[in-house]
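ugh ok fine here u go
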Amino acid sequence: MRRTLVMALGLAAASPSAWAAWPDDVNLSSMSDLAGRPVLTQEDIAGNTAAYETVVRELGVAIANKPLTPADTLGVSGFEVLVSTTVAFTSTQEPEFGVPGPWGMVQVDEDPTPALILPRIEARKGLPFSFDVGAQVGWVGVSRQTVFGGYGRWAPLEGYRQIPDVSLQLGYSGYVGNEELELGVMDFAMTISYELAFGSLKEINSATFTPYGGFGRLWMHAEPRLGAEEQQDLGVRPVSGFKNSTAYEAEGNWSPYTLHGGFRIVSQHWEFKAGAVWAPKIMPTINVGMGFHY
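structure:
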């Protein structure tokens, strides 16, 4: 009985229909069919192109490193581990009855989840001269794709009680494990924050509350892993926000600006962080994390 069950699971995993068990796998090939009919007309292909561009922009914002930390750094001996979750509000709503939205068009069953959920594990290490380096690994929920990223931070101003802390962050993250789409995002963020101490007894401060806010920018690069003829038939193509790329498009909004804000609460070595990132004309994300540092 056990052997039969194992064989059945193996056959299910190997079958083409198994893809549909992972609704948030981006499958560009499924764009050849729209609501049960083949995509043939120029109008259909133009719709595919618009949906593809929306999915790439929103996925790029979702996987990018998040400025979930106030501007202060850990110090040369500091270390932090954080478990976080990103909720990305993607374009899954149907424009009209029976017509899938952008994310539905890149799904085999045209029934994506209402929002992307990306749980992550992040580690950050303090370095001399107010530098930090960090790395994160995450999973795009209800899919077979993962996210890997890394970043560096520098705080030119920190530790002064009269003025806020200021930090600059630069990083890169990649969308890994998809057979039909390659995607990477470079991120930059400037953050301003100010730490406020509080405690249970007057003049005894055992915890801190640190609000923060700032702005940034993302640079996306995406390339379908399909043949040139299939890309043309589907209406998809390489796109990039990097000016030195042959796929660079100045009008494509592949290098959007972002705004971010949130807060951190620390008690002893434990911490809770919450914040939001908004890329205008694309989408917002909400980010929540818990961890410890020393």
